[in-house]
Amino acid sequence: MRKSLFLFLLSGALLLPCAAFAQSVYSDTYVIPVVSHTQGLGGSLWMSDVAITNFSSTPLNVELVVVESGATNMDNIYPLTTATNDGAITVPANATVVLRDVLNGHRGMTNTYGALILGGDKPFAVTSRLYNGGTGGNMVGQTVTPARDFFENSTGQADNAAVAYLPGLVSNASARTNIGFVAGSGSNAGASMNVEVRIKNAAGQTLGTRNFSIASGNFTHVQ
Fold first, then answer.
1. First to last CA, the chain
2. Is the pLDDT of residue 176 over 70?
3. Cβ burial, residue 167 (10 Å; 0-12/13-18/19+)
4. 206-212: which pairs have CB atoms within 8 A and are 24 or more residues apart?
5. 49-105 residue pLDDT tens
6. Could you tell me how many helices (H) and strands (E) the chain has, helices first?
7. Contact criterion met (CB below 8 Å) for 50 and 102
8. Which residues are CB-neighbours of 159 under 8 A, at least 6 positions away?
9. What DSSP string runs through 23-73?
10. Which of these, 158, 202, 168, 163, lies nearest to 51 by C-alpha position?
11. With 194 labelled, which of 8, 71, 73, 148 sits at a CA distance of 20 to 30 A?
12. For 4-34, how does the pLDDT look when each residue is reduced to its tens digit (9 = 90+)?
């Protein structure tokens, strides 16, 4: 269902400072409930990375709006503006873009946190991670789940043959990504769940594929 940014915001009285945002209509909208670029104790710096995947064959345009931590609903909502971002990005076809430390320098501020709203002109997937990238560089943090499922709603499928997209997977000296699936029995109780995992690089090229079959009522851990 197509929806405007106004329909997603709870206050109903939101007035964005940029008319272009107010007139936009989105195919997909997400809210990341907390993003940060904030100094902490001991030289820590809590920052957020946001990964956006375009799974369509044409470029994706995404507008980004920050709901800054504030006291009212009228004076703390602005397009994301940094040295590298002017409130909107374009993600090439079948590609993934990672916005590192997404709030760094937002509106010239050195410390800020709040929520991030993303609206795209076609369906897309997004993930976010909040972590300490300051002194020591321990990268300790956690995933912050966007308020919207990551299933491709353009397929029109409502059964369990759906396709899920997980942007921003990593495997390096600092971190690695684990993935998990839960299957509800539904009307097909007793059946196994068959999963195909296909890994793609940032340009959308397939790096490899693995298939798993998980018996009904079982937990399976695969390295």
1. 38
2. yes
3. buried
4. none
5. 999 999 999 999 999 999 888 655 557 888 999 988 899 999 999 999 999 999 999
6. 2, 13
7. yes
8. none
9. T-EESEEEEEEEEEEEE-GGG-EEEEEEEEE--SSS-EEEEEEEEES-SSS
10. 168
11. 148
12. 343 334 333 233 434 334 445 678 889 898 8
Q: Are 170 and 202 in contact (CB under 8 A)?
A: no
Name beta bridge partners: 195.
212
pLDDT for position 17: 37
The answer to whether 31 and 117 have CB atoms below 8 angstroms apart is yes
Beta partners for residue 16, in sequence order: none
As a whole number of angstroms, the longest Cα–Cα distance in the chain is: 57
Instruction: List CB contacts of 197: < 8 A, sequence separation 6 or more.
Output: 179, 209, 210, 211, 212
Specify the length of the chain in residues.
223
Cβ atoms 94, 164 nearer than 8 A: no
Class of residue 178 by CB neighbours under 10 A (exposed 0-12, middle 13-18, buried 19+): exposed
Task: Name residue, tokens 């684990």.
Answer: 178
